[in-house]
Amino acid sequence: MKVDIVNLTKKFGGIIAVDSINLDIKDGEFVAFLGPSGCGKTTTLLMIAGIYKPTDGDILFDGKRVNNFPPKDRDIGMVFQSYALYPHMSVFQNLTYPLLIKKRPREEMKKEAQRVADMMGIGHLLKRRPGQLSGGQQQRVALGRALIKKPRLLLFDEPLSNLDARLRISMRGEIKKLQKDLGITSIYVTHDQIEALTMADRIAVIKDGVLQAYTDPEDLHDRPKTLFIAEFIGNPPMNLFDVEIKSEAGRVYANLGNGARLAIPESRKLKKLVEGKVKMGIRPQDIHAGSEDGISTEIALVEPMGRDDLIVSKVGNAEVHFLVDPIMKLRMGDRIKLRFDMEKSQFFDIKTELSLLWD
Amino acid sequence: MRFKIFFSRFVPYLLLIVVTLPIIIGYVWILISTFSTRTYGLLPVDKAGRPGGWTLSNWSFLSKPEIWMVTSNTFILASGLTIGVVVVSMMAGYALSRIKFPGRKAFLSLTLILHAFPTVTLLIAIYFVLRWISVIPVLGRGLPIIGGFGYNTLGGVILVSLALQLPLGIWLMKGFFDNVSWDMERAALIDGCSRFRTWREVMVPQIRPGIAALSIFSFIQGWGSFIIPYSYMVNANRATIATYLNNLLSETAPTNYSMVAAVGLFQLLPVLVFYIFTQKYLLSIFAGGVKGAA
Asked: Which CATH entry fits the domain spanning B64-293: 1.10.3720.10, 3.10.450.50, 1.10.3980.10, 3.20.20.150?
């Protein structure tokens, strides 16, 4: 099912929770709503589900306006963070509750419950109560309950947040595979950027109720349109520091202060040639240590992260984070030379916080 | 060290025993005196004051049809009150917990204020209200079992008790509903339930401990209520055990305290039995959770 969201707005009293969001979701697409908690992503989802009524704007399912449809007429399934299973019913009753409401015959309920339970790997648990299941099993039941009525749209509200890290990774893969196999249009709300980046076809980044970007994961990571996205996406987070842009003998430099400066390559030519202060961003993995030439610096802190060591040091006036191979055995106080891969650098206007490179 | 353990263990018990002793002695006296002609302290004595004098004559009231009439009345009052309080509180509590409507906050504080009113201050005003209800055909005094909702009917007494009990019930049910997750309700709506069906099939089962507690509480309240039936029922045969007991105190001179004790014990017994079997639900009022629901 195709979903269109047009100027969708929700106000609670005087507070604007969602501020005229526009989105289109293609049939069979997996879209993630990503943002910090309280940014309006769940509110948007609940409006799509029909739990909240929009203050303004429209929600279209296959071109049909559904603003005033109650949830039961929207043909959707939803999975909640808290699982929201019915504790007084068995797993079988939980799974088949949507069918019971639709007054389907008992045989069909049995058959469908078995089908969904086998798909989710919970076939042996049908007689148990939710309270007797582990978190991961409960989440599978919740997913099964959402799928059993073959909805045309699946909604996920941070479904993996309550699971432990290991289970989260395996469930991530399972949900993505299931979604692709069944081809159900899906919206997945999360504050975890890794979940969004790994699972979604497209990501809608929301901040303070405003849509910041709506694009595919790669674009979001490599071409952040706002400072917020640059800060929010990527792990470890992008280095951001104030630099001064200066032209000298036909070349453009970014001054980090204290005499440290970096040449900006042709590929990163700023939209408007600003002279003066801008925000520069560069990801930790794009700063290379141990080269022959480059900017010399002293290591202030070493944080072993397993595969890499995260190093903190000072360049000019800015604190720089970068990754090195643990084999280098760098220690606090060591001096090292850094090479910045300026082909991967980002620039933002300090006032508007918009990218100076991408529209 | 052992001394310390002794103190931390036994001193609290000792204190509790001392504090509860007067009450316990009271109950023991009631039990003994119902089977004796007279008592001298806790000692049963006969008419001449010699120890002995065990008798069953105090329980002779059980053979009168009157007592069974008032018992059934008391039972109807307590059950009617319970059903009314639970049904109205469940619905009102849900609405106040989940639905936003104008005047919701004002309503909540108003019910609290109503609850704070001593019943006695309202007696005369309610008397007039019941008199007015009496004039309504059928509803006033023409109903079976409860007689109607007017003055001097069992239904009227239930109605008044219900009104006075509702603030507590509504607040209690609201509190229990507040603790049920929104997600569960949303899941039911998305699964295809109507609002009413969500309430009935998904929400209400979650607050069963609360419903049980409120039922027991209301039943005990109705069973022991005195001032309302005493004020609004004039015929002795329509009254409750509590008013019957009161009658016994004022009617017979000199008062036969052993018989009063026997009737009192008779009234107490069902409550005690009830309490023993249901106290774990009553405790959940104070715990206030839905944990036991699963």
From this structure: 1.10.3720.10
